[in-house]
Amino acid sequence: MSQKRDLTARKLFFKYYDGALENNLNVTLEGWIKSHRNNGSVGFIEFNDGSYFKNIQLVYDKENANFAKISKAKYGSSIEINGVVRLTPEMKQPFEIQLTDLRVLGDCAEDYPLQKKRHTFEFLRDIAYLRPRANTFNAVYRVRNACAYAIHKFFQERGFIYVHTPEITSNDAEGAGQVFHVVNDFKHPNDFFNSSACLTVSGQLHAEAFALAFRDVYTFGPTFRAENSNTNRHASEFWMIEPEIAFADLDDNMDLIESFLKYVIKYVLDNCKDEMEFFNNFIDKGVIEKLNNVINSEFVRMDYTKAVELLKKAAEAGHKFENPDIYWGTDLMSEHERYITEEIVKGPVFLINYPKEIKAFYMKLNPDNKTVAACDLLVPKEGEIVGGSQREEDYDKLFAKMKEIGNDKGLEWYLNLRKYGGCIHSGFGLGFDRLLMYITGMQNIRDVQPFPRCPGSLKY
Amino acid sequence: MSQKRDLTARKLFFKYYDGALENNLNVTLEGWIKSHRNNGSVGFIEFNDGSYFKNIQLVYDKENANFAKISKAKYGSSIEINGVVRLTPEMKQPFEIQLTDLRVLGDCAEDYPLQKKRHTFEFLRDIAYLRPRANTFNAVYRVRNACAYAIHKFFQERGFIYVHTPEITSNDAEGAGQVFHVVNDFKHPNDFFNSSACLTVSGQLHAEAFALAFRDVYTFGPTFRAENSNTNRHASEFWMIEPEIAFADLDDNMDLIESFLKYVIKYVLDNCKDEMEFFNNFIDKGVIEKLNNVINSEFVRMDYTKAVELLKKAAEAGHKFENPDIYWGTDLMSEHERYITEEIVKGPVFLINYPKEIKAFYMKLNPDNKTVAACDLLVPKEGEIVGGSQREEDYDKLFAKMKEIGNDKGLEWYLNLRKYGGCIHSGFGLGFDRLLMYITGMQNIRDVQPFPRCPGSLKY
Questions:
Q1: Which of A289, A306, B202, B274 has the fewest beta carbons under 10 Å from its own?
Q2: Cross-chain residue pair A247–B30, CB shorter than 8 Å
Q3: In the predicted model, is pLDDT for residue B395 greater than 50?
Q4: Whole-prediction pTM
Q5: A183: Cβ–Cβ under 8 A, 6 or more apart, which residues?
């Protein structure tokens, strides 16, 4: 690396936090002007080189031989600066840089859409290629990065094997209409692969094959839904985390989910302090407290059956649900889930053992023949955030279920996993983008993704 | 976690390597039988629980009250065992387990396709859902995992931001016929997104937008090619690593590539010792030495122009190339690239400054107006392994080039990055699966991917 590239704002801040940043240090940095004001005798530039969330304040005054030149540098431009570090213990910012010189590397045209003012998220979505430069999105994508790394760290430290399950698949797992099809030159659906090809909705089935070889595995990659849902929480493309563990029952699964979620949240709080303070101040007041509560809670485990009873009682006692028709066998609505976690448990809670009719075919049938060994994790201010289950390891039961729902073609290999040294195993799925919404407090999935893909929208 | 799940073969081996594994330790483990032989008075089971590459030998004899029961346990079955650790300093394996008891958890049917014999890779490809249990693939996917993690570690330690660039895109970057199209219900190409949608061939353009906000970024995700190429080195779906760095020229880029490649290879050699020994012994003799040579070389930098001269000289001096027509302006063939790195340089070499006609539109035009600031890294026994370049940061030059090749529609945003605080920046692309082939010595890209997707093939 050239000498110049070696120094970044990140390194200066880390040096400062280590107590090792010297006053009067000469520095050369390259970055962008985030704001520039000048009263004719002294000027201030908010500078950011992309390596750190916080800006560095650059100061210059009339004494500076380059005063006139520096004054002309425009908001948005890329610049190279020389200057001297001044520790400023009496100020808001811990240090600033007294400019010696400034050179404009890349000008910023007058029609720059990202003006120095408050833009709506809707507007910023429309300039997705520029919004990473806006404060909020600078913070969002840094947290996204830290969160993704925390996920890998967590699993790697525990010996899990990362599996890249395929994106293109012949297995239309969720039924027609919900999947995208992949074609070559719009000819015939089977033109390229000799088989109808679609984009994956889940890597779970493939991950199970790997869990039965490597014991503990996880996928972390893109998944797709062709649902025509234009809500704040639906995207056509999003990343999923899907761990799968062998020799593990539902309790092992919940232990894993709990330690996983606590680890990832703690990593973000520890490693994105400035960003999380930003979210706490400007996006979602109380978000840090909410996350700390999750870290410090012991997650409760409650039967679906019990939850339905408690919800009925609450309704009888006068709580007004928008969907008051609560009975055993119903799929709980978000308001019900939130009532359980926010009002009854007042903390994270796993609902377990759901009616088999409302859960997926691969979930383990309990001895009662009515429920399956599923677990949904509900958290306050969100509702369901993770869904998992023990998988049916019994060949005959799984085969019967697959025949019953007409899903027995093309999945013989999946069934065979139960025939060749199968064992009890479990796993869960977590939408990465929804996790980010929860952690940052951002309200729209489009605002935690770099370039969101949604029905009718494929800009960039 | 339940007590039982807490212990794994991995932990036992790590304990052993730390010198902390006690003789006579009582253990309970769950895993699979990799082989089982019994001479009537003593039995040996090769046991693997998926957490570690090496098997553990389980031993039992006639003295054991469970001898008859244990004897019946079949190859391929999943089992739970109790036993006592015996350190065996005089044997090949460092320790074995004297069985107390064994319980079969999941039987293995007689028609198990993965028999205890040498199968061809072609056959194993056909049972992709079982091959992770075969020795070679156990090693392959462990190295794949370690390599993926090393990539994240390298970039994270250097402050790079991980960006999930989109999989579905409107930008048909490589021209018709090479991309897959994404449709909903085979209706109209524009039916879902109001725009023709295809699967990405590269995240670079999107990564550039992020580099101009975050300075140093990388993508690591799936990319796609609809080429109808049925070779050992082509897959329809593969993972790519694409870093992008701002305020960085071609030399900075090559510094990054060199340190990146050395770091990742060293990480694999350090963390997959057993697996790499396996590859060195059974797949590609000398592969470890080849990799160590890369780590210990200083990568040479040579002009394309100079390389062409040297190749011409070699041909004149009598070296027989299959493609002897070597001239300035030609795209070098693999045999030429290998001759340069293996015979001329005898080590890794960057070829730089290629004729503009044979490189991509976004590469920076050099002052000679004839070449672009591209760098291809060539390594012995492979040829090109990384391709990178400085990007054209000049708006007018880039615009002219895009118009010239008819690629100016839909990419206005990409061009605008040069208008709003642009700066010199560079990046590179590396096919993850090809890197794995290079590291493991595996000869077919289908044998380093979990579930390969190739023309005509979409099983599983």
A1: A289
A2: yes
A3: yes
A4: 0.97
A5: A189, A191, A192, A197, B180, B181, B183, B186
Q: Which residues contact A286 (CB under 8 A, 6 or more apart)?
A: A280
Residue B124 has pLDDT above 80, yes or no: yes
Residue A179 DSSP one-character state: S
> Could you tell me which residues are beta bridge partners of residue B15?
none
Looking at beta carbons, which residues of chain A come within 8 Å of B237? 166-168
Dist. CA A186–CA B174, nearest whole Å: 17
pLDDT confidence band for A193 (50 / 70 / 90): confident
**Element of type H or E holding A425:** strand A425-431
CA distance A51 to A28: 14
- pLDDT tens-digit readout, A232-250: 999 999 999 999 999 999 9
A1 pLDDT higher than 80: no
Give A420→chain B minimum CA distance, Å.
4
Q: Does A417 touch chain B (CB under 8 A)?
A: yes
**Cα–Cα nearest to B29, from B15, B43, B46, B49:** B49
Residue A15 near chain B (CB below 8 Å): no
Residue A409 near chain B (CB below 8 Å):
no
- CB of A57 within 8 A of CB of A8? no
- Residues facing A423 on adjacent strands: none
Alpha carbon A237 to its chain centroid, in Å, reads 13
Q: Per-residue pLDDT for B63 more than 60?
A: yes
A48 burial (CB, 10 Å; 0-12 / 13-18 / 19+) is buried
SS3 at position A98: strand
For B105, phi and psi rounded to 5 degrees? -95, -40
Residues of chain B neighbouring A163 (CB-CB closer than 8 A): 141, 145, 450
pLDDT digits (tens, 9 = 90+) for B248-295: 999 999 999 999 999 999 999 999 999 999 999 999 999 999 999 999
Nearest CB to B142; choose among A161, A247, A252: A161
- Given the structure tokens 């500076």, which residue do they identify? A64
Tell me the average pLDDT across A263-283. Answer: 98
Distance CA B271, CA A20 (A): 34
Contact B225, B201 (CB under 8 A): yes
> Which pLDDT belongs to residue B172?
64
* CA separation for the pair B442, B121 (Å, rounded): 10
Which of A51, A222, A460 comes nearest B222 by C-beta? Answer: A222
- Pick among A131, A140, A145, A433 to test the B interface (most B CBs inside 10 A): A145
Q: Which residues, 6 or more positions from B350, have their beta carbon under 8 angstroms from its beta carbon?
A: B254, B257, B299, B300, B301, B302, B375, B376, B377, B378
Q: What is the mean pLDDT of residues A340-357?
A: 97
Name the average pLDDT for chain B: 95
CA–CA separation, B234 vs B224, rounded Å? 10
Answer yes or no: are the C-beta atoms of A82 and A100 closer than 8 Å. Answer: yes
